[in-house]
Amino acid sequence: MNPTYDFSGQVALVTGASSGMGLATAEAFSNSGAAVVLADINEEALRATAEKLTSAGRKVLTVVCDVSDEAQVARMIERTVTHFGRLDMAFNNAGIQVPPSDAADETAENFDRVNGINLRGVWACMKHELQQMRTQGRGAIVNCSSLGGLVGLPSRAAYHASKHGVIGLTRSAAMEYAPRGIRINAICPGTINTPIVSDMLAEQADAMKEIMRDQPIGRLGESDEIAAAVLWLCSPGASFVLGVALPVDGGFTAH
């Protein structure tokens, strides 16, 4: 059973909110009383999620946003503050995978695309969130890295570069903003049962066998397990936690 939190009167922003870990986290924030900003590039899926939450009496704002475009990110934060008046918590979750590639054969297009969303997107979101939070003197940000931000694996150099970069951003910004009342952490999910992972497994017949070999818990993680960790990092229960890269990976990085 996950712990419960009371985020009443607070505003939470989640990017990549239309499915998977982002959707589960947005729902968890909403169920804990927060007003929630749902951001994604998938307008149709955003609308469906918003309808579900508003029908349950939740406060919701949807924003279509490509996080690799800083101007769109700036408008997202502006809309958030205009609509709700503040921003207390953010989960910078939007991210993509690219096909596995020999490091010598990786295309510049793939490298730029995965880093443009996974790294530059987190940088842009955090930058504009901090501009608002520093005026408030408080806030909590969780950036989504990956077990790929903690280890190296063959054929994943470009993706892992983006996720290692997220941890560097997180640690440096955490040190800078801790004295200003803002906590910044990263979460490092393992292999989670999400649409992105389902697509990957469908294309790589032996991938599940490899995952189970390296994942001591013997199963995929679930999106609500990531949501539980994000909410804890944003809660008063983690008030002395900052600059961490928290593995939630079924033990993958423990060996």
Automatic annotation (TrEMBL):
Keyword Oxidoreductase part of the UniProt annotation: yes
Span of domain Ketoreductase: 10-190
CDD domains hit by this protein: SDR_c (cd05233)
Keywords, comma-separated and alphabetical: NAD, Oxidoreductase, Plasmid
Family stated for the protein in its record: Belongs to the short-chain dehydrogenases/reductases (SDR) family.
Family matches, as PANTHER family: DEHYDROGENASES, SHORT CHAIN, ESTRADIOL 17-BETA-DEHYDROGENASE 8-RELATED
NCBIfam families: PRK07231.1, PRK12826.1-2
Name of this protein: SDR family oxidoreductase
